[in-house]
Amino acid sequence: MTQSGYTVTVAKDLADLIPSFMSNRRKELETLRTALAASDFEELRRLGHRMKGAGSSYGFDLVSTIGKTIEDAAKASDAATIGSNLDTYEDYLAKVEIVYE
Amino acid sequence: MSEAVARSRVMGLSSGFRVLVVDDDPDMSEFLAHMLRAEGMDATTATDGEEGIAKVHAEAPDLVLLDVMMPGLSGFEVCARLKSDEATAMVPIVLVTALDDSASRVRGIEAGADDFLSKPFRARALSARLQAVLSRSGRRITGRH
User: Fold this and answer.
1) Tens-digit pLDDT profile for chain A (101 aa)?
2) Considering the domain A8-100, what is its CATH architecture?
3) d(CA B125, CA B105)
4) For residue A46, which residues of chain B lie inside 8 Å, CB to CB?
5) What residues does each domain of chain A span?
6) What predicted TM-score, i.e. pTM, was given to this entire model?
């Protein structure tokens, strides 16, 4: 466990892709916030689905986990669950530490 | 089998093959293209179904990795169109989906897909699956490389 509590181990040969991946995640968080404010559950479902697929492929398992939760909650129009998961996602993106192996 | 052995086996089969990745998520496109290039393949990308169909006609890839859930034309629709077109029907198509359920697989089979990959996945799964599809399609023997 590191100081932040979030550590991700990423394959070294993916290092060049990570800055863009992380930048896209931060943009995604804003898009998710906007969609939640508009109660656009279809957009939330789509974005959650995308997170689910991309996260673990890069080694960021929590991105996939949060994505699946958002996707499922969006199908149920469960704004409260989505909101709490976006708070977790924001905290994660602010604190995650990446180790290349 | 070690990663190195797996990689060398794939290199022997698939090095130089041209793969078109069709995915609306740039992170997944880049990830897949990166993995394919690491295996010695030539990878190009398309960001939606219409562009994907156009690139299959223009570039005649050896294999298409096709995402299912895309805005506009879905992967199922793209697959069905390519498989119903005499000019592209023989190009192997692997559907890439997070929908790891039997219903989506049935839809994929009906659309003519040659195989499936479920997201998220690791490099070894990708390599092994493509190796199998390329081998079944006979591209090692009859391909242009």
Assistant:
1) 455 689 999 988 899 999 999 999 999 999 999 999 999 999 999 999 999 989 998 999 999 999 999 999 999 999 999 999 999 999 999 999 999 99
2) Up-down Bundle (1.20)
3) 18
4) 69
5) 8-100
6) 0.84
